[in-house]
Amino acid sequence: MKILIGGKGRMGQLIRTTSEYRGHTVIGMADAYNLSATESEEKADVLIDFSHRDNLPWIIDYVKENHCSLVYGTTGLDDDMKAQLFALAETVPVFYSANFSYGVAVLQELLKTAGPLLEARFDMELVETHHNQKVDAPSGTAKALLEIMNPEHAYEEVYGREGMVGKRRHEIGVHSLRGGSEAGEHTVHFFGDNENITITHHATNRQIFVNGAIQAAEFLHNRKPGLYGMNDLLKMNRKG
Fold first, then answer.
1. In terms of pTM, does the model score above 0.90?
2. Which of 130, 175, 186, 201 is catalytic?
3. Number of Cβ atoms within 10 Å of the Cβ of 189
4. Is 52 among the residues known to form the active site?
5. Residue 187 pairs with which residues in a beta bridge?
6. 96 - beta bridge partners?
7. 52, 131, 134, 189: which one is catalytic?
8. 43 CB neighbour count, 10 Å cutoff
9. CATH class of this structure's domain 102-203
10. Can 201 be counted among the known catalytic residues?
11. Quick check: do 2-100+206-238 and 102-203 share a fold?
12. What is the pLDDT of residue 197?
């Protein structure tokens, strides 16, 4: 495939290296200020973006103009931005996920099973850890996990605790840790009477997200317009 990469940071460089290793052609790396960074006049088959939400307008314009697929992994989108992304999927294939790790996708499936079995008797807490350069908190992945844990919004979502907060209410605590070069860790705690269950996914480096993004791009090749996600990759692997 011919790939255009949104952003020129660490993730963008990893995507470029891995894409070329897998036999794809990277026609360029671009940002909002330098669309000429596309190193040829060739049109991309797919645009992969993990940069910044402020780049979304030009990304949508490029995808519409070139009618290419989009793999989008940038987090921190507001409701309006998500609506624009979902509207784009009506005309081109869009693969959108807050986390492109296959392991996180499996974690989400585990929570869909474990949550309903445990929530009545166990207290739930969510902790996410990322590197000191991450700008949004909680992470997009944490928000996705929280949506699974609290689908009907029956629990109050408490972001950190401080002072005389009183005894625990009908709530889920959400905590964000930032430091060092941590690629990402998400832990869900179920605290019961004399027993606890903890489910953790720990990313040792960003390569797992890159691998997932490129697999998503390959998945979109020759697909019909629509909104796709990690569940589609899980279904494909279930079929063998």
1. no
2. 130
3. 17
4. no
5. 127, 200
6. 72
7. 134
8. 14
9. alpha beta
10. no
11. no
12. 97
**CATH code of the domain occupying 2-100+206-238:** 3.40.50.720
Distance between CA atoms of residues 147 and 144, nearest Å: 5
Handedness of CA 22, 237, 221, 205 (dihedral sign): negative
Q: Are 8 and 37 in contact (CB under 8 A)?
A: yes
Domain range summary for the chain, segments of one domain joined by +: 2-100+206-238, 102-203
Q: What is the chain's alpha carbon radius of gyration, rounded to the nearest angstrom?
A: 19
Q: Are 150 and 161 in contact (CB under 8 A)?
A: no
Average pLDDT, consecutive stretches of 10 residues, N- to C-terminus, the chain (240 residues): 91 94 93 57 91 91 94 91 97 94 93 96 97 92 95 96 95 97 95 97 92 95 95 77
Strands (E), 16-107: 25-30, 46-49, 69-72, 93-96
Question: Phi/psi at 151 (nearest 5 deg)?
Answer: -65, -30
pLDDT at position 236: 81
Q: What is the side-by-side strand order in the sheet with 184-191?
A: 156-159, 171-178, 123-130, 184-191, 196-203
